[in-house]
Amino acid sequence: MKEITIDVLKDAASRLMFEMTEEEYVKLFQELSSLTAQMEAISQCEDLDGYEPMTFPYPVQTTYLREDEPLPPLKREEALSNAGSTLEGQIKLPKVVG
Amino acid sequence: MNIEAVIGIEIHVELKTKSKMFSAAPNAFSKTPNTNVAPLDMAFPGTMPVVNRQAVVHGIRVAYALHMEIARTLNFDRKNYFYADLPKGFQITQRFHPLGKEGYVTIFDLQNQPKKIAIERLHLEEDTCKQLHFRDYSLLDYNRAGVPLLEIVSYPDIHNGVEAVRYIEAIRNIVVYSRASDGKMEEGSLRCDVNVSIRPQGASFFGPKVELKNLNSLKNIQTAIDYEIARQSQCLASGMAIVQDTRRYDEAKGKTVSMRLKTEAIDYKYFPEPNILPIVLSEAMIEEAIATCPELYEAKKERYERMGLTPSQASVLLSDPAMASYFEAASEGSENPKTVANLLIVEVNAYLNKTGNGANISRFPLPPVSLKRIAAYREDGYTHQQCVEILEYCLREKARPEDALVALGITKADNDEEAIAAVVETVLAANPQSVSDFQAGKDRALSFLVGQAVKAAKGTLNPSVLAKALRERLNQEK
Amino acid sequence: MSFLDRSIREIHEAYLRGETTPYELTLEAIARAKANQDNALETLDENGALTFAKTLMDPEPENLLWGIPYFAKDNLSTKGIETTASSNILAGYIPVFDATVIAKLKKRKAVLLGKTTLDELGMGGTGTTGRKGMTYNPYAPNHDRLIGGSSSGSAAVTAASIVPFALGSDTGDSIRKPASYAGLVGFKPTWGRISRYGLFPFAPSLDHVGFFTRNVDDAAILLQALAGRDEKDATSSDQEVKDYPVLQKLSPLGYKVAVIAEIVDSLTDPVMKEKFAASVAEMKQAGIQVDEVHLPHELLSSVYATYLVISSAEATSNNANLDGIKFGPYYEGKSYQEVMCKARTKGFSELTKRRFVIGSFALMAENQEKLFLRAQKNRARIVAAIESIFSQYDLIYGPAAPSVAPMVHPKTEMNTIAENHLAIGNFGGFPSLSLPLALEEGLPLGVNLTGRIFEEEKVLALASWLESYTGLAGLSALNAKEKQ
After folding, report:
1. In chain B, N or C terminus with fewer CB closer than 10 Å?
2. Cβ–Cβ below 8 Å for C350 and A83
3. In the beta sheet, which residues pair with residue C292?
4. In chain B, what residues touch A98 (CB-CB under 8 Å)?
5. Of C354, C371, C426, which is closest to A39 when you measure between CB atoms?
6. pLDDT by position in tens, chain C (length 484)
């Protein structure tokens, strides 16, 4: 597992597109360290690997697939009604490069 | 040292469905941005994905055509990253359990020997929104966001540009003829990322992998790969390191240009999509998808050849699905489909080329039934030249072949033995040099003489009978 | 006494008899909402509610929800009404569609009064992290006690008798814990029972839509109204929706009930211990089989870490759509990254950011095996242990919280087994309901009933029996003194 350092946390936050203050990183560091310790304790449980990772609360499958029939889309004004930066019926961003 | 190129190709195909992959917004072309958008496509909070049946059906058919193992349960995963064109901040894809795995497609290599290209995986996913770039800003159009995509990933079994092109053509033929996709590279409904590396012939390791982007035609792909192989070989020869990077093909310069270095791989933090339950694909559903798949390229080609067409005629017709279906309509119940094929390949194509600018068979004004009639005239003994005149008249006057026949006053070329003999004698007398050439064993002289005879008959005599008579007469002289 | 203090069924009968109208009741509820000091509301849609209530002229005898005023948690999408999930990143966001539960209630002509506060984006269990600050517990007029969260405002408006019910959501215990602190019936049915379409996701594999009521019958009425397959939520179940209002009246005498000893043993409040033991004794007395069962202490202690890893991992992905580009406040920047980064830095509170980093860390390729997958395996281990109890018992009965609502200061340690065990109901998607057991110095103590998946009727039937035992049906902060 990746070693938890403040730099690792800063890098993780910046990849999540936000910044935090130094004090917040310290608190996060403590919280995450304590959590990984608890997870380490959990892994002491011998039969843990006998379980499949659980994605859904109970075993469930379906055969349902949506029929390929289009429904009326949003009106353009509706679709863009919450966007803070628009131009000519589109969302406008600073030039995207790369 | 002999150098071997190792090429792997990832193909993204936009699926032709009525609605999007996970939302019910129309999957249709619109000139007006942001008019084919459902709340999910803009990732409004609380929206949930619901899988489109037809996209799955297309996926099953293509997987089957590629001889793949088809998953019995459909699972989806999230690929997490931030980008301007990614509304949800993740893409729903099939990382852990692709719909299809371990298949192949057969192509012909440089020596025209059949070669199997192994295919690693085929999976369903969704497209991003479209960005339009201007001088100092970009605009986002969500019409494309959520369009179903099929991704097909080959193993690195391809060794040169020609094989790459043939591989892509083979995949394109499958997706186009199964009607899963338009498969148009120029319009972006079929997109290729190509990974190229080189190594000493027969080595088992791989060289640094270079990813090629912006390859929007088969021609570009071949040129870019050939350029890239030469560039990397030169690097190796001159002792320079080959850098693992992503390169863009610059069409104007015919070169690949580095876009960015591949530093550490991006960690996409894949995990199973918790809003889509595992979907059981029953045997019955899979069988039905396969059974109802429209006839594929290879099957059509074999059938056309059985109908008497040459392999090259079949290929020409099949290079355009619309041409193929026109052919099928015009040759249905016909005694000699080869005649229909000939008219299409030679005369109709000539007409389309003359019309110019993207004219294609789908805009050809003559209905298949009329072409079928003209072909029947040809078989009935009318000359090729007469049939062409009928065709031209029909196109010019928007007339039916029956009416053209009357209007042009064309009568069937006959097999009148006396008339034929007369023409033969005239031609032989006028061309003593060719006659002696023929006697001296020059077979080419015969075709010249036949040509002269057909010309002299002015279309009134059956050319094949004329040719036969000419040959017999010359053989008598021998 | 106002009709607002009554049950849904009583209000319905009053409408039928013409004793009051939806318009009158809506006016009164708005007045109560305005007078309330608990900071429970994100939006009060006074005009919308009154306009709609005015159109309700002829009571529908078969439709118990006709004209019933209610509030919804502000993480349920409401067309045309600002929905923020109590986060600044969604300030001003006006949805273009209704959540399925909102649409269903609209169709039944219930009157939506507005939206209630929550811990930001549903993350947190204190009712203190929303953009408007702390939501107070109506039982503590001095504002010195927590109401819990994340469905803080919905608990407050129901406990303060502003409405007979409010919608909430529950990912770890976000309905059932605040219900316990506010003396309410709080119910999250089986995962898949109620559509989540339009619920702003926190962790979809754990998220549930549910509700607060002041009696069990109302919970049964709401379950019947809201349950059912929804093709917009592909995880919603097509299991038959039953007649819960009738079934909840059935006798629970044949049921076998398990009490997990380790959870009860972790209680430290003597009153809670005593009241809980008395209720068990009463059940046995009545002929209900109640047995003590055991689970490893280690297993129960692992619930919180498991919950935190899974919920944070899912949350960091679900909330990646919040970037200020398509909705929410937009900030200018030189690049799209700067635009996103400003929106997310300013838009999220500290707790939310910490959870996102934790979740992201747990999903990193090199950590995923040791954190995310291990947590998912441990979730399976815990659910298997509970399933083995359910192979012999119909229901599990236990405390809903260790004690009464905690003081704001000093902060109580929140890592006991009794504090965190309700998340087990989310791990396995089990139907789980909290209801008041007793009052301790005027403050409610709550208990919890959890059943097998899709057996909501058994949960409701025993809850109904307990409700008659406690005599606390209809409990609110207004009448608690009389009920003591």
Report:
1. C
2. no
3. C259
4. 259-260
5. C371
6. 799 999 999 999 999 999 999 999 999 999 999 999 999 999 999 999 999 999 999 999 999 999 999 999 999 999 999 999 999 999 999 999 999 999 999 999 999 999 999 999 999 999 999 999 999 999 999 999 999 999 999 999 999 999 999 999 999 999 999 999 999 999 999 999 999 999 999 999 999 999 999 999 999 999 999 999 999 999 999 999 999 999 999 999 999 999 999 999 999 999 999 999 999 999 999 999 999 999 999 999 999 999 999 999 999 999 999 999 999 999 999 999 999 999 999 999 999 999 999 999 999 999 999 999 999 999 999 999 999 999 999 999 999 999 999 999 877 766 689 999 999 999 999 999 999 999 999 999 999 999 999 999 999 999 999 999 999 999 999 999 988 7
Touching partners of C (3+ C-beta pairs < 8 Å) = A, B
- What's at B325, amino acid-wise? S
Find out whether B5 and B198 touch, Cβ atoms under 8 Å: yes
Task: Please tell me which residue of chain C has the smallest CA distance to B24.
Answer: C232
For chain B, domain boundaries: 3-280, 295-408, 417-477
Instruction: Answer whether B269 sits within 8 Å of C368, measured CB to CB.
Output: yes
- Token representation of residue C478: 């207004």
CATH, domain range B417-477: 1.10.10.410
Interchain CB distance below 8 Å, B274 and C204? yes
CB contacts < 8 Å between B and C, how many? Answer: 101
The minimum CA-CA distance between B45 and chain C, rounded to whole Å, is 5
**Two tokens, residue B453:** 């005879």
Write the DSSP symbol of residue C121: G
Minimum-distance CB partner of A69 among B18, B38, B138? B18
User: Helix axis angle, B417-430 relative to B463-477, nearest 10°?
Assistant: 60
Nearest to B391 by CA among B222, B380, B376: B376
Active site residue C251: no
Residue B267 amino acid letter = D
d(CA C169, CA C125): 12
Domain residue spans of chain A: 1-45
Contact yes or no for C136/C154 (Cβ under 8 A)? no
CB-CB neighbors (< 8 A) of C92 in chain A: 82
Complex-level ipTM: 0.97
Task: Please give the structure tokens belonging to residue C161.
Answer: 């008798």
Structure letter (DSSP) for residue C134 = P
In angstroms, the CA B9 to CA B3 distance is 20
Backbone angles phi, psi at B172, to 5 degrees: -60, -40
Whole-Å CA distances, C192 to B244, B273, C146, C221, C232: 47, 15, 30, 18, 12
Q: Domains of chain C, with CATH numbers?
A: 3-255+393-483 (3.90.1300.10)
Give residue for tokens 């799955």. Answer: B56
Q: Which of B140, B213, B248, B283 to mutate to test the interface with A (most CBs of A within 10 A)?
A: B140
C115's tokens: 């939206």
Nearest CA in chain A to B35: A76
Please report residues of B whose CB lies closer than 8 A to that of C340: 82
